Amino acid sequence: MRAFSANVERLIEKFESLPGIGHKSAQRLAFYILGLSDAEAEDFAAAIVEAKHGVRQCSICCNLSDTELCPICASDTRDPRTICVVSDPRDVAAIERTHEYAGRYHVLHGVISPINHIGPDELRIKELIRRVGTEDIDEIIMATDPDTEGEATAMYIARLLRPFHIKITRLAYGIPVGGHLEYSDEVTLLRALDGRREY
Question: How is 64-101 classified by DSSP, letter by letter?
Answer without folding.
Answer: EESSSS-HHHH-SSSEEEEEEEESSHHHHHHHHTTT--
